Amino acid sequence: MRLDPDRFLTDLNTLRGIGATGNGVVRRAFDPADVTARLWLAAQFSEAGLDARIDAAGNVWGLGGPLLLGSHTDTQPEGGWLDGALGVIAALEVARGNPGVSVVSFQDEEGRFGATTGSEIWSGALTLETADKLTDLDGLPFGAARRALPATGAAPDPARFRAYLEHHIEQGPVLDAAGEAAGVVTAIVGLRQIEVTLTGRQNHAGTTPMHLRADAFRGLAEADRALRDTLAGLVTPASVWTIGHVALHPNAPSAVPGRARFTIQWRDAETDRLDRMEGAIRETLERVASRAGLGLDLSATAALPPVTMDATLRAALRDAAAAQVPGRWRDMPSGALHDATNVARLMPVAMLFSPLIGGISHDFGEDTAEADLVAGLRILADAAAGLTSRQGR
Ligand code: GLV
Ligand code: MN
Ligand code: MN
After folding, report:
1. How far is it between the farthest Cα atoms of the chain?
2. Ligand 2 centroid distance, CA of 377 (Å)
3. How far apart are CA 338 and CA 172, in angstroms?
4. Which of ligand 1's atoms lies nearest the C-alpha of 84?
5. Residues with CB under 5 A from ligand 2 (ion)
6. Ligand 1 atom 3: the closest Cα is on which residue?
7. What CATH number is given to the structural domain containing 342?
8. Ligand 1 mean position, distance from CA 191 (Å)
9. What is the mean pLDDT of each run of 10 residues along the chain (393 residues)?
């Protein structure tokens, strides 16, 4: 069957309609929209002649040949319509015309419970038993959440696949600013994440003198400033760190905050630098907490290594990009995390990026021109065709 760009765009828009919120999408792993989307996807896989199944972790598989293509269909709390969805629907369209291809939508790439949880489980780096104890920010365990999507089959043996390609939006401004149509990924950054709890003394905001307070929010604010100073001497311009989730207790205007719970996440291309950043972050938090008279509790919630893309698979994507969008593509690193990081524990992987208007992602405003979506589909299909004919079907 020939590649059908209209069918690909129609499928992408159908998926966009499941959990649609304004211009964006909300499909948190295992919420009702995510479950509906995964059941819809399994039906599309079956219709395309693939052996469709949903494994115990919620990953949706469309099994065909030995080249695995895919990404994820869960979203951020305020997700864009393309983050993950693009790679899954492009993979489905390629599989319709290429019996050498299998397709997957991994579960919880966006880290409602862990970080890239579904692919981490499949890779063997995380057991289902351990994953079941991970909780979302409201305390719901992965083990309870996954009852919403019962397994219909076992996860496939990784040995049946020879390689993995993931097509994704860039999630940054580089391609769009340069007017380019594609990026071939060189490497994906590593990530670490910790959850921090600072405990002070909850008290009346009108009667507690300033010098007698143990204010957990003040500890958080001081930690943020101290981290900025400490990390400045350690990082490169490409290193990033983020306090992205904060919960204050009791979070009331007339109470001195007794507890601040927050995440610190940092990313870098070098494992050594991730280690040094971790040492500095832990030491800074200890210093700030002790100076402010606050209790400190730290727990590690995610750790993923930096990963280099496979040279042969990259070459297949580069050749296809040079043929489809000559002079309008580049090699580039990924600052975003992807399921490919975990799949790389099992087999060679590579990634293709499509541009993003204004570089806006993890936001309802995320969007890409249709012509660029289709160019990416053609590059993926070309690369897959080259690889599957070499592999033999
Ligand atoms: C995943 O989207 C990430 O980079 O956090
Ligand atoms: Mn994302
Ligand atoms: Mn993604």
Report:
1. 77
2. 19
3. 14
4. 2
5. 83
6. 337
7. 3.40.630.10
8. 10
9. 93 98 97 98 98 98 98 98 98 98 98 96 98 95 98 98 98 97 98 97 98 98 97 95 97 98 97 98 98 97 96 98 98 97 98 97 97 98 94 51
